[in-house]
Amino acid sequence: MLLSTRHFGEIDIDEQTIIAFDEGLPGFENLRKFVLLDTEDNKKGESDSPFKWLQCVDDPMIAFAIANPFAFVPDYDIEINDEVVKSLEIQKEEDIMVYGILVIPEDIRKMSINLKAPLIINIKNKKGMQVILDTDKYKIRHYIMDEIAGQEVGANACSYKEEGPVHCNR
Fold it and tell me: Does the global pTM surpass 0.90?
């Protein structure tokens, strides 16, 4: 199926890869069919990047930048309620993928990921849903660069003017 998109030009998508969001996304309830697009491909044709695009099939002018939240918050821990499990027909934890929608402003240092309302996708049956978590543990705007900086400090990453970023133990 050929899709003429705003961001990627004309792309050929396999209809078997279309993910159905039966309830749409909050604010975009009328958009229900999406495909995942990699931002870059490695030699095997699989992306090593935590970043992807959620390209709308219903309205090819719309695409959301998304990312794997575990790449930035390794201890990200969510509970999916029984209603979501039933709706998405989830049988095993391995059958789901979790993504967060990104906000990428002009100042890239303020890029954020929505950890409060992740996208849950059942990769077996191609059903998805954006779930609003019933917790105050996560925010709608979790600043990625702050998280990366914190991980670098935790790993004893240092920077020397002459050499640039290096790993050191102090």
Answer: no
